[in-house]
Structures are given as structure tokens and as C-alpha cells.
Amino acid sequence: MPVLLRAPRAAVVGARAHLPRWRALVAAHEAQSSGDTDGSGALLARLRFCPRVAHGSLLALLRVGDGFLDPFPWGAGVTSAESLEACLPVVTLPPALTVLQLALGQ
To answer: For a surface tag, which of 12, 36, 42, 82 has the fewest beta carbons within 10 Å of its beta carbon?
Structure first.
């Protein structure tokens, strides 16, 4: 959530499978901060989720992004390396990861 709060024009693009978790996080934050309990606020409108894409489409998406969020709690591994190859900075939270800190090492 801090990324969306600190970058008011930012949007998060992610895999559709993660949408329920993001919706819950955003709804909880908005309920705490503004009393909006239905999750339909401004932060939720900045989330974009898509179905699984072919590898080439993923690489094209990485090339147009401004940053890549290392997914918590798993870590991105190969996708972090592909992001760096596309000159896309990777944002990671090393102390919170439960697996090897691949993005930090890369």
C-alpha cells in the first residue's frame, strides 16, 4: 500500500490470481483512513489485473513499467532478473521475505 500512497499517479499491474488479496488490503486501508468499507475508493481504481500472459507479453509489459514490486512473501526469482534486464528497478522488502532474497542479491 505505501507505494500507491507515495506515488499518487501510480497504478499496480498484476496477475488476476492476486486480485482478491489486493482488494482486501486496499479495502482495509481505505476503511481505516476514510470509513470506506466497500473497497470502491481511489486506491482500488488504480489496480489493474490481467490473466496469465505469454512470456513475450510479460517482457513487453516489463519494458513499459516504471518499477517492479518483488512479490511478498515468495520473491520473484527469474522475473526479478528479467525486470533488471529490461532496466526496470526492482523494489523488494528483504526482511519480510520467507525465501531466498533473490531480488536483493541480483
So the answer is: 42
The dihedral through the CA atoms of 77, 80, 85, 91 has a sign that is: negative
User: Measured between alpha carbons, how far apart are the two ends of the chain, in Å?
Assistant: 24
The structural domains of the chain, with segments of one domain joined by +, span 1-51, 53-106
State pTM to two decimals: 0.67
pLDDT in the model for residue 100: 56
Alpha carbons 92 and 10: distance in angstroms, whole number: 17
- Across 1-106, where does the E strand assignment appear? 12-15, 47-50, 68-69, 90-91
Separation of alpha carbons 73 and 63, rounded Å: 24
Q: pLDDT for 46-83, tens place per residue? A: 888 888 889 999 999 999 999 988 776 666 778 888 99
Length of the chain: 106
Q: Write out the three cell numbers for 66.
A: 516504471
